[in-house]
Amino acid sequence: MALIKMKPTSPGTRTVIKIDRSHLYKGDPFAPLTAHQNKTGARNSFGRITTRHVGGGSRQKYRFIDFKRDKDGVAGVVERVEYDPNRTAHIALIKYADGERRYIIAPRGLEVGATILSGAEAPIKAGNTLPIRNIPVGSTIHCIEMLPGKGAQIARSAGTSVTLLAREGIYAQLRLRSGEVRKIHIDCRATIGEVSNEEHNLRQYGKAGARRWKGIRPTVRGVAMNPVDHPHGGGEGRTGEGQVPVSPWNTMTKGYRTRNNKRTQTMIVSRRKK
Question: Are 144 and 152 in contact (CB under 8 A)?
Fold first, then answer.
């Protein structure tokens, strides 16, 4: 892939940097694997906003992704690689030998016509899915399960990958991109390779309208609000000097640990924050 820098023919294109998608499929997604999506505006059933700065945006169809990769021993051929508006990674449409089609998260370097395989007997090749017990130590993997058979939950976004450090008993140690070292059961499945679209974070939108197309609404600074609306608000000029940055509900926003899951605390060997 490559980056495309737009010519500055207008203020909106002056700083735009796009990602080249010329290698992706140009048509519509595979209809049987899509579903209609309603816009919620980030509001729950009570009409209350649960996530701020969300609303509007272009219409999207949801693509059903095969995160379990449970068609063991059945070879699949990559029919096409597509853009997915619901995630940062690209997806690949796989046609299996029995005629079934499924979408998967496309690993880096996966090309049309390539063959993929799942199961303990699958070779160590990008795009193949195996139990962690069958993957060599030191391998780069992605789309990792946290419970056997539940489906991939770790390392699914663009450009991410995890390193398999060691195996001890029934657990393997993985180093995540955040630096955290975590234990995962060796019967959990993982896919060889790195997730595609690794240049995703280099994109520059260039104008506010491009963010609105993605469904991202404007963010107002707390110091620009009134005291009734935000702890940073009010005063003649900026009054946040020396104050700890907080959210509108007065909880710390920088350096404050929010993890509170004692049930899985023993699975973390080394935290990402020392």
Answer: yes
Q: List the one residue out of 230, 212, 238 whose CA is nearest residue 39.
A: 212
At 1-40, the pLDDT tens digits run: 689 999 999 999 999 999 999 999 999 999 999 999 999 9
76 and 94 in contact (C-beta within 8 Å)? yes
Whole-number Å distance between alpha carbons of 141 and 28 = 30
Asked if residue 83 lies in contact with residue 90, where contact means CB atoms within 8 angstroms, the answer is yes
* Chain centre distance of CA 176: 14
pLDDT, position 149:
95
The overall longest dimension of the chain from CA atoms, in Å, is 71
How many C-beta atoms surround the C-beta of residue 148 within 10 A? Answer: 13
Give the integer Cα–Cα distance in Å for 93 and 96: 10
- Euclidean distance between the first and final Cα of the chain, in Å? 36
- Decide if 57 contacts 212 (C-beta within 8 A): yes
Q: Which of 136, 28, 15 is nearest to 6 (CA)?
A: 15
Percent of the chain that is helix, strand, coil (3-state, to 5): 10, 30, 60
Would you give the distance in Å from CA 136 to the centre of its chain?
25
Q: Is the pLDDT of residue 274 over 90?
A: no
User: Considering just the CA atoms, what is the radius of gyration of the chain in Å?
Assistant: 22
Q: From CA 244, how far away is CA 250, in angstroms rounded?
A: 10
Are residues 76 and 99 in contact, defined by beta-carbon separation less than 8 angstroms? no
